[in-house]
Amino acid sequence: MFTNDIGIDLGTANILVHIKGKGIVFREPSVVAVDHTNGQVLAVGQEAKDMIGRTPGNIRAIRPIKDGVIADFDYTQSLLKYFIAKANRGKKMFVRSRVVICIPSGVTSVEERAVKEAATTPGVSEVHLVAEPMAAALGAGLDVSEPKGNMILDIGGGTTEVAVISLGGIVTVGSIRIAGDAMDNVIVNSVRRQHNLIIGERTAEEVKIELGNAYLDEEYRNKTMEVRGRDSITGLPRTITVTAIEINEALYDSIVDIIDLIKNCLEKTPPELCSDIIDRGIILAGGGALIHGLPELISKQTGIAAHLSEDPLSAVVMGTGKILENLDRMQRALLNSKKSK
Question: Alpha carbon of 102 to those of 8, 45, 64: distances in Å?
């Protein structure tokens, strides 16, 4: 039987799809547009995200995945069905897909089963799950099979996870639900509190990308950005100027929580592996790792060098590609794997 192996990074904010032999073929928001009068799915991915904040009353643009796990089963199934069908487009009917999906390391067995069931669509022969830190480590180019300690920090949309990996398995792991989406909400609240201006999550994300920083240096100290929203008092549109210093202060607590997560994980790590991590450093992956100055601040706070992976946004899904290349030999890296019926 011919196969079309597919790797999926099932993120809270974005879904990335990797096809064996082709690389990353899709990178779209994890959003579904729904007509709430009849429950019909009207759009998926980027087309659905473009509707956020701009839809008529009967259309809702929703994210069916929350904190990296399924919040709405039916719409997540629609999401996965859409991307798997898109990945199989043009393939012959007898081609069956093996699918590897990344999920947070701390999910329950019920949540694991929900992801597998959602991905069990026509044309899928097998569904395998892998913990995001493991996939991120593989995608970042770390050799997880050797008896050496590797530390990976993955800051996604819904969760931040840190793990120490050795001999193909996760030795210690920690997770918090403070990541990209939480940072966007913090920025929304900060702008409203300081400027009496209401902005949406899309605008907050743009501010985070442009001004978000963990460690103020000369490059960012005087950086500003014009932001448009609705005045919370008059209800009228207004434009203000937001500074990088404001955003640094707004994100402070979130950054501290992430650094505390790293420290807690290190405290639980065997001394021999800690020695390896000191030599090798901490590798950062995920979109949140792109916050300006974050590696420098982590290095300063932990005393261990921190480095961005080559492509933080794609590290997790690239890891699924490496698993698909050696699926039989990568069984230890997978969560409880079994064939779909």
Answer: 6, 18, 16
Q: Is a pLDDT exceeding 60 seen at residue 143?
A: yes
Rounded Cα distance, 306 and 314, in Å: 18
Reported as type and span, the H/E element at residue 308 is: strand 306-308
CA distances from 284 to 25, 46, 315 (A): 23, 26, 9
State how far the Cα of 314 lies from the Cα of 168, in Å rounded to an integer: 21
Residue-range domain boundaries for the chain = 6-135+315-336, 142-308
Question: Superfamily for 6-135+315-336?
Answer: ATPase, nucleotide binding domain (3.30.420.40)
Could you tell me which residues are beta bridge partners of residue 334? 130
Tokens, residue 257 = 């929580």
DSSP state letters, 66-134: ETTEES-HHHHHHHHHHHHHHHTTT--TT-BEEEEEEE-TT--HHHHHHHHHHH--TTEEEEEEEEHHH
Mean pLDDT value of segment 284-308: 95
β-partners of residue 282 are: 151, 306
* Out of 88-97, 111-120, 215-224, least confident range: 88-97
Contact partners, residue 155, CB within 8 Å, separation at least 6: 179, 180, 258, 284, 285, 286, 287, 288, 289, 291
**pTM, full prediction:** 0.87
For 142-308, which CATH class? alpha beta
pLDDT for the residue numbered 270: 94
The first and second tokens of residue 233, run together, are 């008092």
